[in-house]
Design goal:
- By secondary structure, the chain is of the alpha/beta class.
- 54% of the residues lie in helices and 13% in strands.
- It contains 6 helices and 5 strands.
- The N terminus is likely disordered.
């Protein structure tokens, strides 16, 4: 799968074991992302307050706040509700863990050891979605700016038309001013009899 470079795409890595974080960073080396690694659910929640992420790779089994509780908090926040979460966990720890992961909002649940190329492919999909979302947000922002500028210009034209009306009511409205006024407000210019 070809992954286009995504401006600003970040992946949050959450695992209590440093060697797992290093392995995940190695797997993503060369991908168009910035990785941010933290050692606990609490640290992950703090990062999510300040930064946006294309996807979160979250260890299910951690001391203190485990991955399931962390995911619940992530999905309760308006800002992070739609951030995709991929759970990573040791194989065959509990047959119900996958269902727990999906029930708290995970998009995938992968057991260790996993195929690094499969993980890269899945992350690549979320990077692509992030990039498309960023492009849509940029386009929407530009469209909103254009609408604001058009509304401002229309208001200015309306003000000019009002001034022309005020001037012409005092002076009598010459045909040339009537033509300019009509063009400004988009009316048909009456044809002289």
């Amino acid at each position: 799968m070809t992954v286009k470079p995504a401006r600003g795409a970040r992946v949050l890595l959450v695992d209590d074991r440093q060697e797992n974080l290093l392995a995940l960073e190695a797997i993503m080396q060369g991908m168009p992302v910035t990785t941010v690694a933290v050692n606990s659910g609490e640290e992950a929640l703090k990062k999510l307050l300040r930064e946006d992420f294309a996807v979160i790779l979250l260890d299910a089994q951690m001391p203190g706040m485990d991955g399931f509780e962390t995911a619940r908090h992530i999905k309760q926040r308006e800002k992070t509700r739609h951030t995709p979460i991929i759970f990573l966990t040791a194989a065959d720890r509990d047959s119900h863990l996958a269902m727990r992961g999906y029930s708290v909002g995970a998009v995938d649940y992968i057991t260790k050891p996993f195929d690094p190329w499969m993980l890269r492919t899945k992350i690549g999909v979320f990077i692509d979605l992030w990039d498309r979302g960023e492009q849509l947000r940029t386009t929407a922002s530009r469209a909103e700016d254009a609408v604001r500028r058009a509304e401002y210009a229309a208001e200015k034209l309306h003000q000019v038309a009002e001034r022309l009306d005020a001037y012409s009511s005092q002076q009598g409205r010459p045909a040339e001013l009537e033509s300019i006024r009509s063009e400004l407000i988009g009316e048909e210019t009456p044809t002289p009899n």
